[in-house]
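ARCHIVE ENTRY
Sequence with per-residue tokens
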Amino acid sequence: MLETQSISLIVGLGNPGAEYDRTRHNIGFMAIDRLSTSWNISLGKEKRFYGLFGEGRLSSGLVGNKIRLLKPTTYMNLSGQSVRACADWFKGSPANILVVYDDMDLPLGKLRLRPSGSAGGHNGMKSIIAHLGTQNFPRLRLGIGRGGRSGSDEAIATKANQNVTNHVLGGFSVTETKVLPEILNLAESTVTSILADGLEKAMSLYNSRSIDF
């Protein structure tokens, strides 16, 4: 397991552009925006890292090395280009990078923190794993659910890919939008716990929690 204070780079995944803003696939971006605001770390364009980047020290009393925040603007499928560029510049280890992203296999309001693992079909994670050359880096998955499924099995199978795309690139419903602040608060608390207590303790505290609505 990772040691306390070992995370130095936190990456949130999403797509750039107004058309993708506040969509389910961009919940990783939303999490970084929340951390940026809470920790008073400004984000700005950084050509070296192909993304929006900021760094600073936490004002909450947590000590340690600088915390860096990154939102790749390469589009989701090329996220690894941005993460690798940033990791190389600061000579960081993959084990010190926390990636925050959406997961359809978890219901909205649920999160899952893990020290390593496969991409699980997520194209952004596939790109990061390919560019870093390892699966051994921590990740925080934020549930977005799979949306409604109706009709015959054959019809569902035929439209599966289209349905997935429409769901992840779609906006949150009115009901979902109302609980988004609570979900992002939970994500922030999880990340803060990682920095304060270490990954293993944070996993035990937060993997069982969820926001009900």
